Amino acid sequence: MTSTDIQDYIPEEEWPPVSAMLEGFGDQTLPASHALTGTALSIPAEDGVDEYTFDTESSLTWTTQRGQEKTSATAGYKAIEARPGIFIIDSVRGEGPAAENVTIIWDRNTGAVTSGVSRFVLAGDRTRSTTDFSQTNSNGSAARHERSSGLVGKRIFYRYSDVESYEHIYLNPGTFTWNCVRGGEAGLADTDRCMTWEAAEDLFIFFWTEKVMCVDAVLLVDLREQRSIGRMFGWDDPAKEPVILPFNSRLSVLNTTEYPQDTNKH
């Protein structure tokens, strides 16, 4: 008997807070890369530009310019080299409801850059998360990360730690289903909005946002190396504080669904 055999539907009002995941996921185990130290990255934004200067292996200076208004500050960051020359860079700036989680996927081989900035907004009396994406090329070329259907049809099992495991079922380029098999959210499952971009062969940038919990996630799904690397950014209502959860996992593709081509026949 598996854990799913004894689980059943859990009403939304019985779901635990976002922080229930923290202890089981543990610390991100993949090592930080120092390769970006001394480099800088500019990302065009509406009516301005965002600039990131990687001062040391763990500290950066970010500068946001919108029209004539310019803001600059320092923040910590972690860069992981997911594949040679391809980095996922994660940084948090601000505190409390004003916190923002910035995740950048930068392919220094092609120059392609995808940036996701997650923040909190009020929807009625509820705090929700939202993520703004931008894409550019650090080399000035036309190469970009393109939207992809490469995960569609796959059912993937993710092991985040010895006590946390989930499965994802990718239904179409904008919708997926997740199910907690073991861990703090055991028995919880939902179907939520997502987006996927292709970063390299069998390497995908994946984003999802949850409609029940206040959670936005940005990660790399690497089918070749059989792992994922990323973070979840959410709001814990009982504690009234952000939950920032960097993670990596080992993954297994359980199966790939291929639909019959005679769907119009009776």
**Biggest sheet: strand arrangement:** 1-2-3-4-5-6-7-8
Number of domains: 1
Tell me the CATH architecture: Beta Barrel
Helix content percent band: under 10%
CATH class: Mainly Beta
CATH topology: Lipocalin
Report the mean per-residue pLDDT as an integer.
Answer: 94
- Our estimate of the beta-strand percent is over 45%
Shape summary: globular
Q: DSSP helix count?
A: 1
Task: Describe the sheet with the most strands.
Answer: 8 strands, antiparallel
DSSP strand tally? 17
What Rg do the Cα atoms give? 19 Å
Domain Molybdenum cofactor biosynthesis protein F N-terminal: 13-120
InterPro entries: Calycin, MoaF_C, MoaF_N
Protein name: Molybdenum cofactor biosynthesis protein F
Organism: Pseudarthrobacter phenanthrenivorans
Description:
By secondary structure, the protein is mainly beta. 2% of the residues lie in helices and 58% in strands. It contains 1 helix and 17 strands. The strands form 2 sheets. The chain has an 8-stranded antiparallel β-sheet with strand order 1-2-3-4-5-6-7-8, with no helix packed on it. Strands 10-11-12-13-14-15-16-17 form an 8-stranded antiparallel barrel. The mean pLDDT is 94.
